[in-house]
Protein 1
Amino acid sequence: MSYSPYLLKGQKALVTGASSGIGEASARCLARAGASVVVNYHSEKDAAEKVVRDITAEGGTAIAIAANVAKEDDVKAMFDQMLREFGTIDILVNNAGLQKDAAIVDMTLEDWNLVLNVNLTGQFLCAREAAKEFMRRGVKPDISCAAGKIICMSSVHQIIPWAGHVNYATSKGGIDMMMKSMAQELAPHKIRINSVAPGAIETHINTAAWSTPEAKAKLLELIPSNRIGVPEDIGKAVVWLASDNADYVNGTTLFVDGGMTLYPGFAKGG
Ligand code: BGC
């Protein structure tokens, strides 16, 4: 690891959707930076418990809590349990998200609602509960110069339109405006809110895009850095944004995408 292992010492973090992929890597990186971590999961209990065991084995502190972030009661119960067990929250990583891809003419209302409910409403519900606790507790200068930090997991598709994925791209575009509006509203309370926008990261959400040589070659054409990202690329960015090293960073999106948003088609044309 290239960052200080004590960057987040004494801080309490909640990572939603942390049983796999980007959420899992974020939880592991936060724990290595010294934070105690809630590993939230929806249905993958065994996987979440393995993340907790691994973090504990490395000398960190973690617990797993089940919750569907799209359900208000689940989210409230998760925060209640976190506050009971960890005392407070300093860092929320709003990560849980999914894809339900279809051509627009075939997209069911159910698939539209599911993606918007988890990806966007889920982030709202968790941010609201975190903000309440940040405001109640205020700044503890020996812990952090902020009263709290929220990191919203967005995507390059908050700006790159995505045919066949209208529900997903819409949810990510919505996250951008939700993040910025919340950051503007909560900055006076010393709360920082930012997004990370990953490009193509090797996880189970996009296996089809990188698991065969043909698919991988096509995907690499969209990535100027010529490699597919790994979940730790995002975990490291999350740690930095959550740390006091990023204290003057508020209401912005950090694209971690190997240059995917650089209009790669123009490298040889235009
Ligand atoms: C999506 C992936 C996709 C990547 C780049 C992500 O937000 O979840 O499926 O590979 O964007 O297009």
Protein 2
Amino acid sequence: MIFESHAHYDDKVFEEDRDMLLQSLQANGIDAVINVGAGIDSCKKTIELMDKYPFIYGAIGIHPSETGKLDEESFKWLKESCGHKKTVAVGEIGLDYHYEEPEHSVQKEWFERQLGLARDVKLPVIIHSRDSARDTLDIMKNLHAEDLGGVIHCFSYTKEIAREYLDMDFYFGIGGVITFKNAKKIKEAVEYIPIEKILLETDSPYLAPEPNRGKRNSSLNIPYIAEEIALLKGISYEEVVTVTHENAERLFRVR
Ligand code: NI
């Protein structure tokens, strides 16, 4: 069975058929999902989803693009929500320099504070890092993120950067981008990263793999991602599914 390590089923694009879609996952070979918070509202909806569906776990955290709205009161609420018995990670947190806002200093401050939160509540982290490879690594090394453990979600950097994360014993979330024709850099990185350090993810509703690129994504598309990883690593599809499931159980401490 497939472990989906990163989805956003709280998103409003699932409003019409969310329950039907989620109820269909197990029959399609997906037996665990981590719904990942991005803002305060999405964290609240994540908690509703983990309370409603036995196979859904949650990550609680604020995406770098949403950090401009954070304050002490909501940070306190985040910490409380990390105490939920099905919260398995702090995330997604990190840095995103693709857009101008929020200012880098604001993103860095809340990234550091949420790494500290993960340390306080003893949970691994789910890292979002876009166009910010060096700063992300510097902060993680300074704050000893290797003690926390975690995953670099939607890994999109080179194998040289991958090596630095491997040195910190981190995992790599691999999603739909791996199936894109022009994804040469990421394909090289996946060839290099040991299968024992890879997690399957979709980032639904975003980043649907080929042949569904551009459409609304869901965990039902994970087989396309697992097939591509199997091809790149010269192992069977079943091995990719089994090993990545064990990896996710180990990292997030769920069974
Ligand atoms: Ni995400």
